[in-house]
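Quick entry between incubations.
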Amino acid sequence: MSNAAAVATGRPATTEMVRRLPEYLMIWVPLLLSAAHLISFSIWTIWISFTPSTLVPVTGWVGLRNYNAVLASRNWQIAFDNLLLFGIAFVLLSLVTGLLLAILLDQRIRGENVLRTIFLYPLAVSFVVTGTVWSWLLNPGIGIEKLVHDLGWTNFHFDWLVNRDMAIWTIVIAAIWQSSGFAMALFLAGLRSVDTDIVRAAQIDGAGPFRTYTRVILPTLWPITITVVVVQLQFAISAFDLVRALTNGGPGIATQLPALVVYDLMFQRSQLGRGAAAAVLMLLILLAVLLPYAAWRYVRRRQAAHA
Amino acid sequence: MRERSFVPSRILIYLAVTLFAAAYLAPLVVVVLNSLRTNEEIAQSSMIGWPQHWAWANYALAWSGFCVAETCTGIRPYMLNSALVTIPATIFSTLLGAVAGYAVSLWRFRGDNWIYGIVTLGLFLPQQMRLLPWTIVLRDIGLINTLSGLVLIHTIQGLSFTVLFCRNYYVAIPYELIRAARIDGAGFFRIFWRIILPLSAPILIVTVIWQFTHIWNEFLYGVTFTTGQQQPVTAALIALSAAVADIPQHGVQSAAVIIAALPTLLIYLFGGRYFVRGLTAGAVK
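Done. Structure below.
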């Protein structure tokens, strides 16, 4: 096209290039900056993870020493165990909550818009705010436990925030409060897009409302379920702000998570090599979730193309 | 007959949604009420309670009075920092994203699918993978601990989302429209200005809301690349709770939390439809 225009006006190719320079700059500069920073920053961090860098990045090669050090540290081991527990509990509970809310909202109830606004507003709030507010509510000295004590039930105990074994569940609670609305929004969209012909056919076959739901409508939601799981896992793996505001990894290091370990190594202990190694480990955990998901989407798309 | 048999289950449904709604609203209600109670009142009872005297002074203190790490300016300067980062970064990333989204979807050029594919990888790459390189780059170009540095980061990183949103919206525009304009001799910018931009209002609103909310709420970069008086409000809130850990001022802190959350909450309330569209667009990449 551009060549044709150049020929038609009789302009040499170089002037044409100069004339279209603003266009090339506008297209390529932002895209190249974005792509280049993604690739080069990833390689850069991976490279640092193989160097003996501590306070400042240095050259040199230490092989897997940083990785071994991180993997052997109690900090990382606790963070990884917490991530497994937090990831699974948070994703399952927010799926259940989100699905339940979506099904309830799908019953042609009054005030659906208001309710949807209420269930989704936490998503507009920062994790810092969510974490701060829940750290007050769950603090036994000033929060729910104190309230119940003041009301007369002095035997009531709800001290998860300061209890080493239960503290991770406070993060689950706050995370579900913040983002189960996301699952609800996707499920509700899925429920609304179910083919009414299938539902009618099931009803003609004599299926009651409950059977129609469990046998006909819910099975159509599983692709959405997988998307919700992957997005929520992605959040769980990189969770930082929420923990920082709610427990700051404590009590002790009981609620440590990988993103906190990375930050701690890089900026508090000045162990850049190890911090980079921990960041790469986070990326590997993420890839363990995303690569199967990408493969699944690829297969589904091909099937859809053939069908 | 039929109607009557449905009544108990309808009541159960309404009961359930009411309970859920109460649980979702409770934290907000608690904080709003606390922001209007005096610190002493909260200290005597708990965080959960009805104000005995309406302590409006909390808001004045939170806005411009209390001290974070020896500077007694309230959260006003940090709110200003957040605005000075969020507003330019939102505008830049949205505009550049719209142009690039249009270029990869309708203008087309050699390598467009490749570069688009790489850019969207930014949706997945964890921030932790970019922390050290950004630190080094910002230091080398002299933008460490500046608001401009944060604008730069959020503009470049935001492109992954804005290009995706705009590209997915523009692919639905019939190519014939562009072809006709090209034959008439319209260039890249003229087509964008005359054809694409007038059609873009819905997606630009979605993108602006998404970017504003994310940048305003962002914490990790704010706390890593800025210190003291340069920090955005999310980082200042954390510094505040650390600073007052010995003598808690929960009334004032609650007011500060409300002020910090207000911009994104207001945007959500007025643009909820577009907010949700952004959420689902971001998920179904």
